[in-house]
Model the fold of this input.
Amino acid sequence: MLTPHLSIPLDRDSEEPIYRQLIRHVRSQIESGTLPAGTRLPASRDLARQLNISRISVVNAYAELRAEGYLSAHAGRGTFVSGGRETAATAVPTPVNGSARLNGHTDVIGNTYPDRSLRELMRMARRPGVINFSTGAPPSEFFPVGHLREAINSVLDRDGSEALAYEVPEGYAPLRASVRDYVSALGIQCSADNVLITGGTQQAIDLVVQAILSEGDLLVTETPTYVGMIDIARTRRVRVYGLGMDDDGLRLDMLENVILEHHPRLIYVMPSFQNPTGRIMPLHRRRQLLNLAHEYRVPILEDGVYHEFRFEGEAYPPLKALDEHGIVIHASGFTKNLLPGLRIGYLISDGVHHERLVRVKQAADISTPGLNQRALHWMLEHGVLAAQMERNIRELRRRRDIALAAARRYLPPGSKWEKPLGGLYLWVELPKSGPTVAELYIQAVQTGVAYALGNLFYSNGSGSYHMRINFGAQKPADIEEGFKRLGRAWRELACDYPEIEKSPLL
Ligand SMILES: Cc1ncc(COP(=O)(O)O)c(C=O)c1O
Done:
């Protein structure tokens, strides 16, 4: 039975979000018998057009009514009024409030940033039973808890209350020396005086933005880029120029024009295993980037947090290792490779940059907690990181391969992804004939899987069909199951998209 036209009197001035009004009206029409069992509801796109509301409102409303048992979806045929109200089998997530909020907003300085409601969506990922591919976390089952306990006890026995006093802003001197040794193994030759210990890589990046950029200045990033950098740019009121990438990373053929026309004050790049794409910038492009930056005197902030997470392929030196002019500031941390919760990162920089960064760091938080720094120093000296990294890489490569096989098996035809040679993430593009990743999200969480929405990684609101999957943080069985649920959620929703050709998956 097909509904030719649903009569839904929406009140656009009401405090009640549109999708909630829609749920209320459809529910009451089902309960009153106006919409009898078996009635086929219009496809979300058609109803959105008919009511002049956004499709995501309809998708949210249908998802909630399905979870409540009022509606059911039949792959390839559409959404129908159920025979009788059934108890929902899964927990019902609260859909995002309103529709316009999903489209992002323009901030005071002209960039469109991912909207708050995307973050509200992301919070659903933490529900119990959901396989959460959305985080930026490394595998927690490998955290060296025992070593940390031993490290803290040893440090307290050795240093007593000194370990709990204010630390100097540059960081605990022996740790700075360990960082110098550590980065020298990656090819970065520096002195401990060039090292500044920070509260994770995130603070390292934020300090550089504060030290170099003023409100309204322009920052060039890869696009898509690390969502944390977009957040920093927004809070520091800095404009972002998202420059496209090709397989080898940042498009340098376009960079020169951008520099000449827009005068950026900083270039932010992740040359190795870029987040979210997983791409790696080859040596010749690293050199070209340095030459260009030097020629136009634009400093580079290199984020090297995934540098060592290489599964295969050639190893390239960090930009800082190739930097002859002190133009690169290198940011990284012991968060992805050891313990995110210790919150220890570092900056390697030269001359005036370093002095200014120390002042900004002191103004920000006086110092990074001394006990954490000393415990980390103890672990580095006792070889904990080296052992941890070896195990991490082996296991992450295995998980990457499981994710690739599961993606091939379960993702809808027309989906695209690249094989990451390192890092934690798979960057997936869904077919554009189906739901966007935001439209799919509630259905996915109800099916028990969550991912990071592609829009979050763009400063201009693109990325509607992209998702970032963190395969690194999940155990192998959950990776397989997570992709299976993702495929199922997509097929459930895709039945509402008449433009999708009937594929064997539907
Ligand atoms: C590229 C990149 N830089 C920096 C960070 C922040 O890391 P940290 O935990 O060291 O602050 C992350 C975390 O996801 C990241 O992906």
Observations:
- Residues 84-114 have pLDDT under 50 and may be disordered.
- The longest strand covers residues 328-333.
- The radius of gyration is 25 Å.
- Residues 384-410 form the longest helix (27 residues).
